[in-house]
TrEMBL record:
Residues 17-171 form the Pseudouridine synthase II N-terminal domain. This is tRNA pseudouridine synthase B. Its EC number is 5.4.99.25. Gene3D superfamilies: Pseudouridine synthase, PUA domain. The gene is truB. PANTHER family: PSEUDOURIDYLATE SYNTHASE TRUB1 (PTHR13767:SF2), TRNA-PSEUDOURIDINE SYNTHASE (PTHR13767). The keyword Cell membrane does not apply. NCBIfam families: TruB. It comes from the Bacteria. HAMAP family: TruB_bact. Responsible for synthesis of pseudouridine from uracil-55 in the psi GC loop of transfer RNAs. The active site is at 32 (nucleophile).
Length: 297
């Protein structure tokens, strides 16, 4: 779905529970309340696929403001420092962006949802604690500037950017670190997620649209987009539906969409998702089994 601004991911799950008439709803990767865009939501049996979706690459469009730092590294926090940034040339900005591209070590924002001793970091910050999280490796596959604009009489510069990155990358931390590298501070003023793995804004619906028509992506189609695929014989489908192993057949697995995911999605001759398979030597072991008719629910 296309998450609206001001809603938490938990808010969306609560709303979807009411729309779908079931408690079994989850999401694949939190979006901050300020952010909008693609939030993959699973309903009923499809929640079993969410753990695999969480680790896929994400794509964002964002606006980074150079010249101001905030306590939250985004526009929702108070400004903690201001440094004129209007004189920084575009070449210097692009060079700093290049330094934040590729495999990097990133310190998440202190107001992230990461747990510290069992409590969310943002809750510790709100209670007055000074929280500094440990750096973690992330991959920024691409970090492209699409526009640069001077604002506030030239004292600040706003950058429109598109970022494709690994799961666990914080875009507001990129904004903070870009400002720090340029010596003027920076924070995020807008964020929109446009892709989660193979799922894009073109497939997304707003809450208002879903309230009128709860259209969903079928689990068969969702799995085909996400995993390598194996087409089963009728006897293999029967064995897997009862939890039995079958022979491994690497040649029968079609190429995945580039997400590096295993297991393999195994489909019956009818086109129905039967199981997710993991290789065990010469055999393929079902990691998840969907009973006949279950995958559609």
């Amino acid at each position: 779905m296309d998450k609206p601004q001001g809603w938490t991911s938990h808010d969306v799950v609560g709303r979807m529970r009411r729309l779908a008439g079931t408690r079994k709803v989850g999401h694949a990767g939190t979006l901050d309340p300020m952010a909008t865009g693609v939030l993959v939501v699973g309903i009923n049996r499809a929640t079993r696929l969410l753990t695999y979706i969480v680790g896929t690459p994400k794509t964002y469009t964002a606006t980074i403001r150079l010249g101001q730092s905030t306590i939250t590294d985004d526009a929702e926090g108070d400004v903690t420092a201001s440094t004129p940034a209007g004189s920084i040339p575009a070449d210097a900005i692009r060079a700093a962006v290049t330094g934040l591209t590729g495999e990097i070590s990133q310190v998440p924002s202190s107001v992230s949802a990461i747990k510290v001793n069992g409590q969310r970091a943002y809750n510790r910050v709100r209670s007055g604690e000074d929280v500094v999280l440990q750096a973690r490796p992330v991959t920024v596959h691409s970090f492209d500037i699409t526009d640069i604009r001077r604002q506030d009489g030239g004292a600040i510069q706003d950058l429109d950017v598109t970022v494709r990155c690994s799961s666990g990358t914080y875009i507001r931390a990129l904004a903070r670190d870009l400002g720090a590298a340029l010596g003027v501070g920076g924070h995020l003023t807008a964020l929109r997620r446009t892709e989660v793995g193979p799922y894009t804004l073109d497939q997304a619906a707003t809450l208002e649209e879903l309230a009128q028509d709860l259209r969903v992506l079928g689990i068969d189609e969702a799995a085909r987009a996400l995993f390598p695929v194996r087409e089963l014989t009728a006897s293999e489908a029967q064995d897997l539906s009862h939890g039995r192993r079958i022979r491994h057949d690497a040649a029968g697995d079609t190429a995945s969409s580039g997400y590096g995911l295993r297991p393999v999605a195994a489909f019956a001759p009818t086109g129905e998702l039967i199981a997710l398979l993991e290789q065990r030597g010469e055999e393929a072991k079902p990691a998840l089994v969907f009973a006949p008719g279950e995958a559609a629910s």
